[in-house]
Amino acid sequence: MLPLDDRRVERFDADLAGRPQLIRGTSQLLFSGMGRLSESSLLNVKNKSHSITAQFTVPHGGASGVLIAQGGSFGGWVLYLNQGRPKYVYNLLGMTRIPVEGEDPVPAGEHQLRMEFAYDGGGLGKGGNITLYLDGDAVAAGRLENTIPMLFSIDDTADVGEDSGTTVGDDYSPHSSRFTGTISWVQIDIDAAAADEDHLIGPEERLRIAMARQ
Fold first, then answer.
1. pTM for the model
2. Three-state SS for 144?
3. Which residues are CB-contacts of 202 (< 8 A; sequence separation ≥ 6)?
4. For the segment 125-147, what is each residue's pLDDT rounded down to a tens digit?
5. Quick check: bond before 3 cis, omega within 30?
6. What SS3 state is found at 196?
7. d(CA 89, CA 98)
8. Which residues pair with 50 in a beta bridge?
C-alpha cells in the first residue's frame, strides 16, 4: 500500500531519510564560478560540527563580497568580506541573522579564511560555537543557540563568489555580493574532518582530498 515512506519533514534530510547522497565522504572542494548548486550537491552541514575554508587573494585597495553562500533570505549561511572585514552570517529561517565579524579589513595578498562551527550535539537543530580564523589566527567568535535541522531552502541554492538568489545576509545585494578579489578554492569539512589543530589547510591536505575522489 502507498505511501512506501510515510515520513514527512525527515525526507528533506538525506542523513535522516537514509537515502543515497550525491556527495560522499567528509570533505568537499569547490572552485570559483561554481553556482546554483542544489542542497544535495553539497555536503550536509546541518546537525553536526563543520568548517568552511576559503583560499583567496585580495588586490591592492582591498576586496569585498561573498566567498560562498548557501540558502537565501529564509534560511542559510554565508562567508564573506564585508567592506574588507571577514564575516560569517547564519540566517535562522528568516527570523534572525546571527553575524560573526572581525574588526580589521583583510590586507592585500593571499589569505585563508576559515569558519569553524562546534555543534553542541544532543539532537536536531541544536546550537554551537562559531570561530573565524584568518591565516590560522582567531579574529572573531560567536554563538548560535539554534540551527536549521532539515532544509535551508527549497529554491535558493549555493554559490561560490556571489550570492545570486535572495541573499542570506542583509548588508549586500545579489549584484554587490560578487567577490572583487580572486578565489582559489573553498573547502567544506564535516564531523571529524572539521577539526584542524592549526586552523589552516595546506596543499598536502587538499591533494589528499583530491586523490580520494579519483
1. 0.90
2. strand
3. none
4. 999 999 999 999 999 999 999 99
5. yes
6. coil
7. 5
8. 117, 190
